Recover the amino acids of this structure.
């Protein structure tokens, strides 16, 4: 059970939409709820979303790694997730109001693509979605736009993997959905370094422009969160912290970060949005341009 999307429901309950991998290796999505977001988690007795390979062949090998965003305009939660099949990973979208019944919009990004999340409202009349296509020599974070959540275009590259010995030189991808702040969109992204012992996943920060989120205002050179605990370093895929969901407390500053640890379990880290923004101010990028 790992890589959960996260939302705070209107009654204050925290809901995690978790990826659960069975002993076949096939993943489905399950909802877990907690009154305080920390303890006494209640997992639904049935999965929230199973693969539907009869109508959606792109899901033949499972549904994985959800990111969840509330869309006030339509009054529903939008879940972007990885649909996995012999064609590779693709981005699919589903809508729900209760996390028990989902309306599948279907595949919105062709393989090979993943790590996608919507912005919670339109910008300049169009929905925006970050995603991570596998194209060329590097895997970078891109943005697309849509008038209706079904037809996507206007692709532009947002953040590139760096070259050389950097912690995020091998590939990067979006973590949780972007966090809207007074200064712009705060991004947590995962960076991967290829080492002699395998891949090492850590988390870094960037700040995107409020009106043009494809424009990077700041990007930290250093990673801010990496695998240290035994449960993060040992598991099905070792040395991985992989956040897919966050919630913000009533003070609009306290950030709860829910992440997959070593592709085996779920961890919780906390921070303050104000401190993350201040860290970006103190650690301006000295590397090559971000894109």
């Amino acid at each position: 059970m790992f890589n959960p999307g996260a939302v705070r429901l209107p009654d204050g309950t925290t809901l995690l939409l978790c990826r659960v991998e069975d002993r076949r290796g096939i993943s489905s999505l399950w909802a877990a709820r907690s009154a305080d977001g920390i303890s006494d988690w209640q997992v639904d007795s049935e999965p929230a979303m199973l693969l539907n390979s009869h109508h959606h062949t792109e899901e033949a090998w499972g549904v994985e790694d959800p990111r969840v965003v509330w869309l006030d305009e339509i009054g529903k939660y939008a879940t972007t997730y990885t649909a996995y099949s012999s064609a590779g990973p693709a981005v699919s979208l589903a809508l729900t109001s209760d996390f028990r019944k989902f309306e599948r919009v279907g595949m919105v990004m062709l393989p090979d693509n993943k790590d996608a999340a919507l912005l919670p409202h339109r910008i300049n009349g169009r929905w925006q979605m970050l995603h991570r296509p596998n194209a060329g020599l590097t895997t970078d974070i891109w943005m697309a736009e849509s008038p209706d959540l079904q037809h996507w275009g206007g692709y532009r590259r947002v953040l590139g993997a760096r070259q050389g010995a950097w912690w995020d030189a091998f590939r990067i991808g979006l973590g949780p959905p972007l966090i809207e702040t007074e200064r712009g969109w705060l991004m947590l992204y995962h960076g991967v370094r290829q080492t002699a012992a395998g891949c090492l996943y850590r988390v870094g920060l960037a700040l995107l422009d409020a009106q043009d989120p494809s424009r990077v205002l700041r990007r930290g050179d250093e990673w801010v969160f990496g695998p240290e605990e035994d449960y993060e370093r040992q598991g099905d895929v070792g040395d991985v912290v992989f956040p897919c969901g966050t919630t913000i407390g009533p003070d609009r500053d306290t950030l709860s970060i829910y992440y997959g640890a070593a592709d085996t379990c779920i961890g919780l880290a906390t921070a303050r949005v104000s401190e993350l923004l201040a860290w970006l101010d103190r650690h301006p990028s000295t590397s090559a341009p971000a894109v």
